[in-house]
Design goal:
Strand 15 and strand 16 form a beta hairpin. This protein has five domains: 75 residues; 47 residues; 189 residues, Vaccinia Virus protein VP39 (Rossmann fold), CATH 3.40.50; 120 residues, DNA Methylase, subunit A, domain 2 (DNA Methylase, Chain A, domain 2, Alpha-Beta Complex); 100 residues, no CATH class. The protein has 570 residues and is α+β, with helices and mostly antiparallel strands. The protein is built from 13 helices and 21 strands. The C terminus is likely disordered. The strands form four sheets. The protein has a seven-stranded antiparallel sheet, covered by helices on one side. A six-stranded mixed sheet has the order 4-3-5-6-8-7, sandwiched between helices. Strands 9, 10, 11, 12, 13 and 14 form a six-stranded mixed sheet that branches.
Length: 570
């Protein structure tokens, strides 16, 4: 049977009509629920008061049982003042009041402690936020990205203070796009000539190892005449013109310096200078950068704010034996070739000990027919070269010969052996990509020096007078001396000693600005005087500062007069 209950007074009704009439009464029923709740609260309060009263009485009993002397001692322990003249009841009252106040103070202290903890937590959070804010984020783009040598080098240089972030990559090769995505979680765009530059995120550094086939010794050396690959440099310029990066790092073969009688290289440098970049360049051999491969490449670094100075690095050469795997796959040459001992076994620091000679033609000795010692550095790994040992060359191991495998070749470039390459099924394809790659170790050192480079382009820099166009004498001369063999030879002749090593800045000496080995270059106004009468002088002195490269080198041996000086135009 259905029962209807009033939610207010809790009265039950068997019929709904009676229940409805009860709800519609002019004088509403009493709220029984509320009354009950109030009664319960009163009872609880009274009970608590009784409990507290009983507890207080017990305390009072305890205090009452104490003698006056004990009460006086307790007052003293509690730090109560003005108690010595009180009677026993007054002493008990003082002690109870003191304990109640202590409880209040404890609550206050707890509140204060909570607030202090909150403040500490806030400060900790602020410090964490500050640390996040202190991290410098530098964005870069990776053009013609290949296997990601630039990306790997930037990752190696990221730290708690600086984070290099790749915001864009491109490469026309589909296999490269898959490899780059496997390793760096970025899918590169394709053909650079079809990229919408507006869609490229803003960035600080532009990196490009632009195609070298048009300039390399192994290629046709067509330079800018190669319409497909030689002119891709101008696509880089289009991106520079729209995005205005602060820094640029370019890489190419060293033959870029000399192809087309130097016109191609001069065009590149001129175009970069016309965009107000301070341009530095250097041919670097990777064998001095803790890499067991001798790979000479030209590196160009451009900076809007300062002249980049390449560090003089000549680390001890690491042998190929340090990166070898336990591989038992060797090349059987006996049916077609025989070994001929190489008389001049030191090829750029790489010990070539044998040549493979064809039994029928009696010819041999191409890149893929050379056999190297594993106790020295290895030769340049090429994307394509002739002979059965093409790409990596042969190595003499346990009286047998073999080429390097992919894992070993990755190590020759500074990549880890765990480089992901599941998308590439053919090892020759991977070796081809490696042959077009850049050595990570070299890029890592160049990047490391980007932020700490201290050659500032301003008129107040010590020992430097800045020309219109942003080049100072020291930086300009260092680049010339390190890359112009003709100029270095002339220095050697007139100094009467061999010049060893690269030119570098001297820090902490106001008189000497830079040096090669023990030969110091001193600065005096518009003239940098070299020992034994050699000087670097601006053409036309103070009145000739119209262009940044307006220099003369004057060789003035001590026995000759100024009129007999040999002048070398820069």
């Amino acid at each position: 049977m259905v029962k209807y209950t009033c939610s207010n007074c809790l009265k039950d009704f068997k019929q709904k009509s009676h229940y409805d009439a009860h709800k519609l009464k002019k004088i509403p029923c009493n709220n029984t629920v509320e009354k009950i709740e109030n009664l319960i609260n009163i009872m609880i309060t009274e009970k608590n008061d009784n409990i507290l009263s009983i507890m207080q009485k017990e305390k009072d009993k305890d205090l009452t049982n104490l003698s006056k002397t004990n009460l006086l001692n307790k007052c003293k322990e509690l730090g109560i003042t003005k108690y010595s003249s009180k009677n026993k009841q007054e002493l008990i009252k003082l002690i109870n009041n003191n304990q109640n106040n202590d409880k209040k103070d404890d609550k206050k202290d707890d509140i204060k402690d909570d607030k202090k903890d909150d403040i500490k937590d806030d400060k900790k959070d602020d410090k964490k936020d500050d640390k996040k804010d202190d991290i410098k984020i530098i964005n870069y783009i990776d053009l013609f990205c290949g296997l990601g040598a630039f990306h790997k080098a930037f990752d190696l240089n990221s730290s708690n203070n600086i984070k290099y972030n790749c915001v864009f990559a491109c490469d026309i090769d589909k296999g490269i796009q898959k490899l780059y995505n496997e390793n760096y979680n970025i899918i590169p765009s394709g053909d650079i000539t079809k990229i919408n530059i507006d869609n490229i995120p803003n960035f600080d550094i532009l990196c490009a190892g632009f195609p070298c086939q048009s300039f390399s010794l192994a290629g046709k050396k067509e330079g800018f005449d190669d319409k497909e690959k030689g002119n891709l440099f101008f696509n880089i310029l289009d991106i520079i013109d729209m995005k205005h990066p602060t820094q640029i790092i370019l890489e190419n073969v060293k033959n870029l310096l000399s192809i087309n009688n130097g016109i191609t290289f001069n065009t590149i440098i001129t175009e970069l200078k016309n965009r107000n970049y301070n341009v530095s360049y250097k041919v670097i051999d990777s064998k001095y950068y803790n890499c067991p491969q001798s790979r000479q490449r030209l590196y160009i670094v451009c900076d809007k704010n300062k002249q980049y100075i390449f560090k003089d690095i000549k680390n001890k050469i690491i042998p190929v034996s340090t990166i070898l795997d336990n591989v038992e796959s060797y090349f059987d040459y006996s049916s077609k070739y025989y070994l001929e001992q190489n008389k001049n076994n030191n090829n750029n620091g790489c010990m070539m000990i044998y040549k493979l000679i064809n039994k029928n033609t009696k010819k041999g000795g191409r890149q893929g027919e050379r056999i190297y010692s594993i106790n020295s550095c290895g030769p340049t790994i090429c994307a394509s070269s002739g002979g059965p040992g093409s790409k990596t060359g042969f190595y003499y191991i346990n009286n047998k010969i073999r080429t390097l495998n992919v894992t070993e070749s990755l190590k020759m470039f500074g990549f880890n052996s765990d480089y992901k390459r599941d998308s590439i099924k053919n090892d020759n394809d991977m070796l081809f990509y490696l042959g077009n790659s850049i050595v990570v170790n070299v890029l890592s050192e160049i990047i490391k020096n980007l932020e700490r480079n201290e050659v500032n382009q301003n008129k107040n820099s010590i020992g430097s007078t800045t020309a219109k166009g942003g080049f100072n004498e020291e930086a300009f001369m260092i680049n010339k001396l390190n890359n112009d063999s003709n100029l270095r030879d002339k220095f050697s002749i007139f100094m009467g000693k061999e010049i060893k090593g690269d030119a570098k800045l001297i820090k902490g000496n106001k008189k000497s600005d830079f040096e090669i080995s023990n030969i110091k270059f001193q600065h005096k106004k518009t003239v940098i005087e070299l020992s034994d009468g050699l000087t670097l002088q601006r053409k036309g002195g103070d009145n000739g500062r119209k262009e940044a490269n307006n220099f003369q080198i004057k060789f003035i041996p001590s026995k000759l007069s100024l009129n007999n000086a040999l002048v070398y135009e820069i």
